[in-house]
Amino acid sequence: MSQSQLKNQYDKIKSQRLNLDMSRGKPGEDVTSLSNGMLNLPGDNFTALNGFDCRNYGVLDGLPEAKSLFAPILGVTHDELIIGGNSSLQMMYDAITRAMLVGVSEETMGSGGWAKQGSIKFICPVPGYDRHFSICESLGIEMLTVSMDENGPDMDTIEKLVSEDDSIKGIWCIPIYSNPTGITYSDEVVRRFAKLKPKANDFRLFWDCAYAVHHLTDTPIKLLNILEECKKSDNADLVYMFASTSKITFPGGGVGFMAASKNNCDFIRKHMGFQTIGTDKLNQLRHVQFFGGFDGIVAHMKKIQTVLKPKFDTVIEILERELAPHNLGTWYTPNGGYFISFDGNEGTAKKTVQLCKEAGVVLTEAGAVFPYQNDPLNRNIRIAPTLPPLEELKSAMEIFCISVKLANDFY
Amino acid sequence: MSQSQLKNQYDKIKSQRLNLDMSRGKPGEDVTSLSNGMLNLPGDNFTALNGFDCRNYGVLDGLPEAKSLFAPILGVTHDELIIGGNSSLQMMYDAITRAMLVGVSEETMGSGGWAKQGSIKFICPVPGYDRHFSICESLGIEMLTVSMDENGPDMDTIEKLVSEDDSIKGIWCIPIYSNPTGITYSDEVVRRFAKLKPKANDFRLFWDCAYAVHHLTDTPIKLLNILEECKKSDNADLVYMFASTSKITFPGGGVGFMAASKNNCDFIRKHMGFQTIGTDKLNQLRHVQFFGGFDGIVAHMKKIQTVLKPKFDTVIEILERELAPHNLGTWYTPNGGYFISFDGNEGTAKKTVQLCKEAGVVLTEAGAVFPYQNDPLNRNIRIAPTLPPLEELKSAMEIFCISVKLANDFY
User: Fold this and answer.
1) Which parts of chain B register pLDDT below 70?
2) Element (H, E) at B13
């Protein structure tokens, strides 16, 4: 295609004044409506199995039946699970502010929390989740980037960093169907994480299993259980795990939860008890009644898979057809999760995103998936295919591919 | 009555093995059931007035119609209101941790937040709310007690303290139907608060209006609007206000919110945006649909008043009958709120609570309403009459009065 042909094609689309959003990991109405049955619950059934009236105060860290529902998602016991409010992000933020102000355990409280130990650092495998990085940035925590491949982060570098520098207090991990790359950590990577011996005794892994049950194939990848592996290495207190139903039921109307060793959870429960009297048990009950049990979640995720699989297939197909033959970018075909991470040629990401925007397609800002919004090679773009209906997604991806070509001066 | 008669009476009740709870400010089933109509909402009506689909991400600080519902409770505009999760206590805790880690405004961020300024202090009018004090204690904030009378806290002392000591960063206030005394701050006290000129430029009033609409009479006390008064004194950023529907609809299943100057709220919204993507809009919608508008809340509180008034009357009647003639204690008859604060004779509170406990009546621990659980005169007991049904409450108060007499060696 000549330059003028491509530009004509672009201008023609631009004139349609489209308004397509591929910027965030939001489900579409096609997914949220699958949970509409929850919207008139709990009705008259507001009593928990143990007789507790869920309309009143009490139960700090989650109803037993809600723990039974969510515990299998992370592979933990009730003692190792804390159910929070509507947001796992908030539980991560609170875990960090708590660690900063009071520490991570009774044993380390003498050191006064991270905030009293001078400047501290987190390791950030890249590309990663922008909201993880903005928590660190907002709290003045320095971020060290580490690269990733299809097996997970560069463990050689991580092992070296944490063993040498006791100002490194944490690392952000999205171990299954990672945001944005879609990769899942290999068993070896998980085991090496579990065996880390950080110099800082108040270091924690922030293990965000946001997409733990969000499979796109019928043969789901199995992530090794980090807490089990940590226990094997006498390292049980190393990890905080997080997940939520935001992308199972309703984003903002779901239930967030975290898991860790009983020792960690007891410390967190104690300090959480100063912060709140308890979380929203009625919403927990709503989820329990809607799903029945973990099998209900698995069946529900199959329905979501049916909606999302064609969207991911469409993105990959169009990328394969339009860009692969011309070496205009690389990507990984994810087996689950919410994103496709596109690595274009160096220096082209910002221009591509800008061209898309002018043609009515909003993408995540280029660089957003790097700490300080700084993609040193200016080449990564996160594609979020879940929100637009399939036909709109096709249009958006056509615009995306034209924009990539224009940004590469490829005609 | 002779000593042996009184002891016999006590032993007789003890043998009944009662199990009565007057320990916490919990509503009974007689109050929570008034909101049962909310339990099957929102049903199919999940779209906000502005077209927003409440089943998905978005809207950081509250739906416009939820702001319209709650703003009149605190007398503020939408810009001055932030709707949170299910707990106003959590908003208070978060306001403090945020102030500790990032500060209270763009202007004061250079100082690095309270946590970077050495040891800091809060003023605590006593008696007060135990959960306010335990937030301070858990975060290592020193508490300075200030006395209260029927008009509010001792303003002479407060004005002196905050003008001289820039390590004093806040004060806990429950300005209407105070926990536990039931008093409401006089107009003069509110105006003196609004005119405070603290030495610390990052000082804030923590103005907890937990009982703002919880009247027990048909001629409610009107609390002066602190934010309006602060504006008049060119002091708009001085105050954070808090409230929730915990004791309007469902404790733990309600909606918490806070209010402050637009300047304060903008700063909080910015940092709240790092903590969460947004709060539970479906629960906000549920409240909007159930109440219709603020008038619906007022009508609902009348129903609650009908349930609670006889309980408060019963407590006061029994105290008046059994203890007043013998100078065994003093109390204030509240016009609203959730508590009656009993001041016994010096040195008798712990023994009274213990005797009640042995006879099957659980009260709040003696001293709980003072910082560090330390009532220097060991005389205050918080009575929470809302949870027990009326007949049980009568039994509990009989036991209470017998216990007071025994603790005083009064026969």
Assistant:
1) none
2) helix B3-14
